[in-house]
User: Fold these one by one.
Assistant:
Number 1:
Amino acid sequence: MTPKDITQLIRKRRSIFPKMYIDKPIPKAIIEEVLENANWAPNHKLTEPWRFKVLQGKALERLRDWQLNWYLTNVPEERQTEKKLKKLRNNPLKAGAIIAIILQRDPKESLPEWEEVAAVACAVQNMWLTTTAYDIGAYWSSPGFIKDIGPFLGLKEGEKCLGYFYMGYHHMLEIAGKRQPISDKVEWLED
């Protein structure tokens, strides 16, 4: 792989949303590779704070049901929308897999939490680049109710869900990227 290949892969990465997914299973071997690549993310003091729970098949239906129940129970009726209900009902079932992204704090708290969150984000970037290389769409979702999903996921002490990593095959053509020039964001301090 050349630097040009890496640059192209990084710049090709996009958020591909569940509504764009097609009904095509993702092979377990690819999901395992996505997770193994996540495991190689940089992390201070080698705390390896990432944990993952892979949901497929009936687990996606259970997630859908849990989300709907949480929404109907916790959001006042006057603030509930049909659009949100539709997304909660349909999105989990459109995914080939959903990976719950979990932070496991170092029990000794030997470094600031933000460093471990950053390490988990680096792991997710590795996942995203891997799915991009396989032409699998991905999207990191962080709905407000993840703060309450611990019992559903069976989280252990010190674990916190940081969101879902949706994955699914799609028929999207190249999606143009949108970034402001890096020159607007960098100051060179040379003298």
Number 2:
Amino acid sequence: MRAGRLSFLVPSLLLVSVGAVAQPAVTRPAPPLRPTPVKPADEITIYRDRNFSGPAVSIRQDEANLGLAWTVGSARVRGGTWELCERPRYQGACHTVWRDSSNLGQRRVQSVRPARSGTWRDLGGADVNRVVWTRSTIRVRGTPGLWAVRLCAERNRVRLQGARAYFTNGRFQNLQVPAQLASGACTGPLAFPTSRNISSVEVTAATVAVVTRARIRLEGR
């Protein structure tokens, strides 16, 4: 009787095993792929005239020699921070732009590149048109957190009597500045003990002669 039961069960087990192997595998369709979001490329457009008018050139990468026949009067920034240099291969005086600037003062620009880490960026400026000491306030848009600022002279040499940085918490710090700045020159870094949110910088400056016109530019990093 035991042998008979075994002979009856074995074919049944074989049939079950064969049936299990023979069934097709169930496959489910893969979920649709989601497109990877693309970050828009950083870009700056420089214009011949003020207020974003006249002939223009758009730049998205290093341009070592633009060969421009005109000076640059304004720039529109669509991402990133940019260095505008007066000579090819990023030589000569360089101006850092990180936001739209409707009046760059007809600046000579022959090379442009994205600013490197730690590069100074333009925070604003004030005209210096009198030979007597005049106090001007350069207001900083966006209250950026900065470790240092510096002052640069444009168009002509300027005399400096003092400067003071104001922070968004109502406090201030006096800045040690040289007695004079040559045209195109900047002070050394005027550092803060820690990163500070700047609201404005007050500068007392004068021209070197009655007919001289100059400008003070504030930069930060």
